[in-house]
Amino acid sequence: MRPLAEYKTLVFDCDGVVLNSNQLKIQAYYDVAIKFGASEVQAQALVDHHVRLGGISRYPKFEYFLREIMQQAVTEQAMQDLLESFTAEVKRLLTDCEISPYLDHLRNENSDAKWMIVSGGDQAELREIFKQREIDKLFDAGIYGSPDNKDVILAREIEIGNIAKPALFIGDSRYDYQASTNAGLDFVFLSGWTDVEGWHDYCANHKITVFNHLGSLI
Q1: pTM score, two decimals?
Q2: Which residue of 68, 102, 117, 145 has the smallest Cβ count within 10 Å?
Q3: Where are the domains positioned within the chain?
Q4: Does position 67 have pLDDT exceeding 80, yes or no?
Q5: Which of 3.40.50.150, 2.40.50.140, 3.40.50.1000, 3.50.50.60 would CATH assign to domain 4-19+99-217?
Q6: How far apart are CA 85 and CA 199, in angstroms?
Q7: Can you tell me the distance from the alpha carbon of 91 to that of 158, in angstroms, rounded to the nearest whole number?
Q8: 3-state secondary structure labels for all residues of 144-184
């Protein structure tokens, strides 16, 4: 990682970085599965799959839930029911969850850089929640999410010049590291709110810089 002042763009994951929402998302997956008709064991299997694939969109996770866990066809109606239920639950939970208390201070220290959200969360949902929480204006380079995955978003935004390098990706999942590295961005891992099991060994093995929270970057 370079000195913070050298970065032209800062790219943030959302859950576990800007919002303390990882555990809330876990609960949402569990509750939605139960509401759909899953047993407790099946609902926990979805949660386990979600945690293993941290940073990945909800769309393939629910396809896996239907096909592999529930042993059902992945129909448009079933996906719509799951996604609508999950969206409603996430909006309710994220309306009140903790926002990183270091955002404004970090923005003041990094005023010349462009800021962007690149998340596995639903793009329209993220934009609505960030506007409601009055933090959308901090991210002047945009707020992006699924159904496009992070690899697609990063490649697109680099190609159109919206991500200027050197750029730093701040994330809390294996996929964040993989996507940022593939795109040629520097990466730091935030450990304070992550739900990744074995993150310490993973970061040590890949020589990833680790900070506890956003305030540690200042």
Answers
A1: 0.87
A2: 68
A3: 4-19+99-217, 23-94
A4: yes
A5: 3.40.50.1000
A6: 30
A7: 30
A8: EEECCCHHHHHHHHHHCCCCCCCEEEEECCHHHHHHHHHCC
